[in-house]
């Protein structure tokens, strides 16, 4: 990739910028890890940056004990809501890209608007609705919420993805007598695997990290990990080893996905800007 | 070609459930929020939590109070906070993202490593970021004691607990300020028209600008927002939240810019170099003009995230600190802590209008090009 010739000073400046930025991005990580491994009694503000005298694992054990039910909630929530929204999005994207109809260019933006709205503007009726149907405070209610508000983005990603499949492939299938579902199952779906990976990663990250719905629509027993972390870290006079260990536990699933499947992650991120 | 075959009907039927659900959950619920914002839900504590509350219409009273009641000063400061937060968050993320993308585009060693490092915060929850940066910004620790590691004196700024406020202004001067800005824009448009030798139009814009300036200069306040002066300003405690937000999102702008830079054809740069342009001139005259569209997209996406910012502030300073509060947070407290649902709904509608003014033009323009295909 090195096509450009640079003077020595230019190269020094480039690397200096990159190293400085690396420090900016990684210093918080260092501080979190160091704090999480310190014995609570040895944590002092003035020596925050020093390495722990001995590596102390107990904070993770305690954090795991308090967090494991919440991690379980988050897992159930995230996996089911992601799967359902992905399936719906795939079908919608298929219809909107391959079975276009009169007025689809009005319907589609109207659907997309739903992913940009501040959810505060639907929160009170949503809260009433879930209470009326008996799902307020339950994990099912939160799953329903995330499926519904996940439909616009999953539809968008799949629609852009399917637009790349040449119409001729479907025409060929039609000549062979395949109908709506036949074409989906035999032609479109086999080509959608990487589309599903992009959507799954994107939704998993979004839902795992979400907080507003989680804090307003759940109760103690059903709250996901982000709510638990906010409570653990929110109290006055906190012992910082626990919030830091908790932050690491909360961050780990999405971080692992990001590091292993980064390529797909970036594709999802670029798909977020409407044109795709 | 678009005959109504059985498959077409099936296709529509498959889409229909999603459409109905979104029609209810997005548009129906927005409508209901608007309705709630016109009522007195929450005024009467007995009705507040009733399953079927008896609501009375008060029309736009809730909105009126938000903007002109002495009791709602916090909402107005929240709006001011949001404006400052948005400006610095956008500016910071775009600038850092662009600089990093350009640096990575120079064919550096270890590009993959740097990219991973710069983008990883984007995979985190705002709650994690907030928790981490709250610890980073402890007045007697974190960033402030970092200089002592290499023997320098510690930092003094109290970050999130700071009570300092700069750039103070009277809330009542907002109409004057708006008029002045509009007048300035009109003058610029007039100058453009004059250059394009459309004299008549230039004169019209200039007269409009002059009228506005005259109105401001005359000091007559046609619009009386508040009976008393109310000082607003930039709360310095917001700086910490801005830094955390930039830390989380500048990798995202970097990724957008990098994708865009990689899309600039090498021949274009090459031909500029053949014409004797230095590397800096290549960027100024060839590359930067091509980054306009992606910058606009990034501004809109970051802008709507910024307007909705809630979890980061919640995690960093808690829901109750007024100096760093934003409307999205106030809406949550009003509705779900204080059961003032009508007030909460009104704040939510203000928020929705702000986001919609950013998002609707974006959706319309970016989809219009496609549809013509």
* Helical segment count of chain A: 12
Summed over residues and divided by their number, the pLDDT of chain B gives a mean of 88
Percent of residues in β-strands of chain A: under 5%
Number of strands of chain B: 2
Concise description?
With 276 residues, chain A is an all-alpha fold. Chain A contains twelve helices and no strands.
Word description of this protein:
- The complex is a heterodimer of chains A (276) and B (373).
- By secondary structure, chain A is mostly helical.
- Chain A has 12 helices and no strands.
- Chain B has 16 helices and 2 strands.
- The mean pLDDT of chain B is 88.
- Chain B is globular.
- Chain B has 373 residues and is mainly alpha-helical.
- At the A-B interface, helix 1, helix 2, helix 3, helix 4 and helix 5 of A face helix 1, helix 4, helix 5, helix 6 and helix 7 of B.
Features:
heterodimer, A: 276 residues, mainly alpha, 12 helices, B: 373 residues, two-stranded antiparallel sheet, 16 helices, 2 strands
Task: Give the helix/strand layout.
The complex is a heterodimer of chains A (about 280) and B (about 375).
Chain A: H1 8-36, H2 58-98, H3 104-113, H4 120-132, H5 139-162, H6 167-175, H7 180-188, H8 193-209, H9 212-217, H10 225-234, H11 241-260, H12 262-271
Helix pairs in contact in A: 1-11, 2-5, 2-8, 2-11, 5-8, 6-7, 8-12, 10-11
Chain B: H1 6-37, H2 45-48, H3 61-68, H4 73-104, H5 111-119, H6 126-136, H7 142-149, E1 165-170, H8 174-195, H9 199-218, E2 231-235, H10 238-262, H11 266-274, H12 279-290, H13 292-307, H14 311-317, H15 327-337, H16 341-371
Antiparallel strand pairs in B: 1-2
